[in-house]
Amino acid sequence: MSGREGGKKKPLKAPKKDSKNLDEEDMAFKQKQKEQKKALEAAKAGASKKGPLVGGGIKKSGKK
Fold first, then answer.
1. Which residues, in sequence order, are CB contacts of 22 under 8 Å at separation 6+?
2. Sequence-distant (≥ 6) Cβ neighbours of residue 30 within 8 angstroms
3. For the CA atoms of 17, 19, 23, 25, what is the dihedral angle to 10 degrees?
4. Model confidence over 46-57: pLDDT tens digits?
5. How far is the CA of 16 from the CAs of 10, 19, 20, 26, in angstroms?
6. Could you give the percent of the chain with pLDDT greater than 70?
7. What's the longest Cα–Cα distance across the chain?
């Protein structure tokens, strides 16, 4: 009869899933993704050192 009984009940926690057995293709794919992520982060770091690629300001069309 307490005030906490009303409202929505919390769902029970789902049991943890067993880790999948990864085959060679999955392992190679994950390794490739890690390498791509590292390359992307390295490219971001290199790009942040330099200034913006275009410094032209407002773009003007050829029409007058």
1. 30
2. 22
3. 80
4. 777 766 666 666
5. 18, 9, 12, 21
6. 67
7. 80
CA 9 to CA 5: how far, in whole Å? Answer: 9
Where are the strands (E) in 1-64, listed by range? Answer: none
The token pair that represents 21 in the structure block:
């057995």
| Dihedral over Cα of 24, 29, 31, 32: its sign | positive
CA angle 33, 46, 36 (to 5 degrees): 5
Residues comprising the chain, all counted: 64
Give the whole-angstrom CA distance, residue 24 versus residue 58.
52
Q: What is the distance between the alpha carbons of residues 13 and 9, in angstroms, rounded to a whole number? A: 12
